[in-house]
Amino acid sequence: MPYLDHAATTPLRAEALDAMLPYLREHHGNPSSLHGAGRRARVAVEKARARVAGVLGCEPGEVVFTSGGTEADNLALRGVLTGAALRETGRAANRRGGLVTSATEHEAVLRTAEALAAEGYPVTVLPPDGAGRLTAEAVADALTEQTGLVSAMLVNNETGAVNPVADIARVAERGGAATHTDAVQAAGLLPLDVDALGVDLLSLSGHKVGGPKGVGALYVRAGTSFGAVQTGGAQERGRRGGTENVAAMVGFAEALALADAERVDHAVGVGALRDRLRARVVAVFGDGVVVNTPSGAAPHVLSVSFPPRPGAGRGALDGEMLLTALDLEGVAASAGSACTSGALEPSHVLLAQGLDRATAAATVRFSLGRGTTEADVDAAAAALVRVVARQGGAG
Question: Whole-prediction pTM value?
Answer without folding.
Answer: 0.94
